[in-house]
Write a structure and sequence with these properties.
Blueprint: H1 3-19, E1 42-45, H2 50-53, E2 56-59, E3 62-65, H3 97-100, E4 105-109, E5 118-125, E6 128-136, E7 139-147, E8 153-158, E9 167-175, E10 178-184, E11 189-195, E12 202-207, E13 211-218, E14 221-227, E15 232-236, E16 244-245, E17 253-256, E18 259-262, E19 273-274, E20 279-282, E21 285-288, E22 294-296, E23 303-307, E24 311-315, E25 321-325, E26 332-333, E27 351-354, E28 360-365, E29 371-377, E30 385-388, E31 395-399, E32 403-408
Length: about 400
């Protein structure tokens, strides 16, 4: 295993531990607070860690579930008559992504022209992404604009890390002519932003919280939700303004702005282990803060679900990854040869990162049924699999031996 993959796995396990159910006090199993976590915007997995790091490990037919981060009770949506069990799709030859969607995937090295190793973060435009470099493990020190066509880079800003910082800068997002991020200085969360044209970052807002569950940009405002209590806030990206709560957002989290909802993750039925799959899920109830529209999931299968505004992706007791629309229609099995791989809301309410039979990573489009192969092997002795956790992310990337494959989902 390369040093890059080892570092990626460490990030994954720290993130999984942070999101795992809390052990009862006094038995010596309480998780320690990680010093840093840049995994809230993405999760990097090796095949051996897939089942654990997705937040629901299957062991002997039982499921270890993530605890709720919202404090909201689970929502039951099972029907009177369960649907017939789905079966995994048969093995199929998946065409290369370049043939399915030309011009959306880019092979790039892992270093900038100045020799610094970088991490992809967010899409700036059709041929440029924001990337970060690190001064030490997980400690981002600068943001660059990276041209996917000619591999040239321009520094946007440096990252200011206050003394005694507990969680280093992470959740980098782009919009409104700015790049924004957040960190925890040991006592409170700080949200920062810098103009994409270049210049120093400015403090946008702060909150007494252990972190943010999501950070996005709406027009000239940064918008965020608090972890774990919820509540959505916004403040001007240029700084100097006062953070204000979005009306009606108490105990809610950002899903895919302007959609917010709860619960953020699926609560366990009881304790750390449950044998009972239920038609419950993360973001079972959502609201559009722009239109006032509300939606609740009415799913037909008893499974572990994570929902986007329209689609829900789940993992059932028959070890099949499947999707349904919130109203229960469109039910289908997802081609995947890894149990429970990628139980996260579909990206852009449309795309599922999956592993069809044959041992490679692919992008599956729920809207058209098309699938494109990234031609990157996963499994023992192979590359890590990166699963994007931000359902609003236009950027998907995964690791190769010498760099990254970057996919602009918004260009499909």
């Amino acid at each position: 295993m390369t040093e890059e993959l080892e570092n990626a796995l460490r990030r994954t396990l720290r993130d999984a531990a942070e999101r795992a159910p809390r052990a009862p006090q006094g038995i010596g199993l309480e998780p320690r607070r990680p010093r840093a976590s840049r995994g809230s915007a993405r999760m990097v997995l090796t095949a051996a860690a897939v089942a654990v790091a997705i937040g629901g490990a299957t062991v002997g037919g039982r499921t270890l579930l993530s605890g709720s981060s919202s404090g909201t009770p689970a929502a039951e949506h099972s029907t009177a008559a369960p649907s017939p069990a789905l079966h995994r799709p048969k093995k199929t030859n998946v065409p290369p992504i370049e043939k399915v969607w030309p011009g959306v995937a880019f092979h790039v090295p892992k270093t900038l022209p100045n020799g610094h190793v970088f991490h992809p973060e967010a899409v700036i435009d059709d041929h440029t992404i924001a990337v970060t470099t690190e001064s030490s493990f997980e400690k981002a020190d600068a943001v660059y604009a990276y041209d996917l066509r000619n591999h040239q880079a321009r520094q946007i800003t440096t990252i200011v890390t206050p003394p005694k910082t507990d969680l280093f800068a992470n959740d980098f997002t782009v919009g409104g002519g700015y790049v924004a991020w957040w960190l925890n200085d040991g006592t409170r969360v700080e949200i920062w932003a810098a103009p994409l044209s270049g210049g120093p970052g400015k403090l946008v807002g702060q909150a007494n919280s252990r972190g943010l569950s999501a950070l996005t940009i709406d027009g000239k405002d940064a918008v965020w939700s608090l972890d774990p209590v919820g509540g959505v806030y916004r403040a001007p990206l240029a700084g100097g303004g006062t953070a204000r709560m979005v009306p009606g957002s108490a105990s809610m989290h950002i899903l895919d702005w302007p959609w917010i909802g709860s619960p953020r993750t699926m609560p366990p039925k009881s304790g750390l282990v449950t044998d009972n799959f239920a038609a419950t899920g993360g973001f079972a109830h959502v609201k559009n803060v722009s239109t006032g529209e509300t939606r609740s999931a009415h799913l037909t299968d008893r499974a572990l679900w994570q929902c986007a505004p329209t689609w829900c992706l789940g993992y059932g007791p028959n070890f099949v990854t499947e999707v349904q629309r919130r109203d229960g229609s469109g039910r289908q099995a997802i081609p995947s040869d890894v149990n429970g791989f990628g139980v996260h809301p579909p990206l852009l309410d449309r795309f599922v990162i999956t592993t069809p039979s044959g041992g490679t990573i692919a992008v599956y489009d729920l809207r058209t049924g098309k699938m494109g192969d990234l031609a990157i092997k996963h499994g023992k002795g192979q590359n890590a699999v990166v699963v994007a956790r931000d359902p609003a992310s236009r950027l998907y990337w995964t690791m190769t031996n010498d760099g990254y494959v970057v996919v602009d989902l918004g260009a499909i």
